[in-house]
Amino acid sequence: MAGHSKWANIKHRKARADAQKGKTFTQLSRAIIVAARNGSPEPEANFQLRTAVEKAKASGIPNEKIDRAIAKGAGTYGSDEDNFEEIRYEGYGPGGVAVLIEALTNNRNRTAADLRSIFTKNGGNLGETGCVSWMFEQKGVVRLEGEVPEEELLEASVEGGAETYEWREDENNKGAEVFSKTTNLEELNQALQEEGMPVKEAELRWIPNNHVEVSDSEQARSLFKLIDSLKELDDVQNVTTNFEMADELMSVTTA
What we know:
single chain; alpha+beta
């Protein structure tokens, strides 16, 4: 296994991570509710729930609100309004950029209508299931933050059953991302932690297999507006795209 660095992917993920900072408690609590409903209400025995709780705590959500969300998922608190289901929506953004949306909703019709409206207003269109998902592959990803010696990372990654890893080349945000099969994420996360790696987050993520180059500034602005508008919806958990963009254009359009 060799570590490698894909500049465009790094820039894409940085933009993605920056947008995630604004995720609301409503979105985070839904992830906790669904995780607790799908497994044990004890984070120690439920990896999905544990990672959802860790994200909520990292965002400053009070413990009592986290406990309430777990209770809702376990069926000991709440109502039918908390019966969220996981749905994936797909569409195209400006310039034919593929857009994959992961949502948790208790009203499919409302969510579909909201998404369709956002796509239409921002030069895209909401498509049918399967229209773009074939361009992506889901992986388990463990994100590391800080200085990581490559020899130690390689050894820990092999021990945890990783497929590969990539360095982040941002001087102000050094680290790496380690990739594995989705079924191996918990084992990889545990192995990296046991080896003292600076684990920041573990998640399932859709990785694009091909990319669309965006070179027009107006097209880029419309694309970012579309992504930001989608992420603002409480029903939306994650938005993944397959665009590539030059550093200069990224700087201008996100300034």
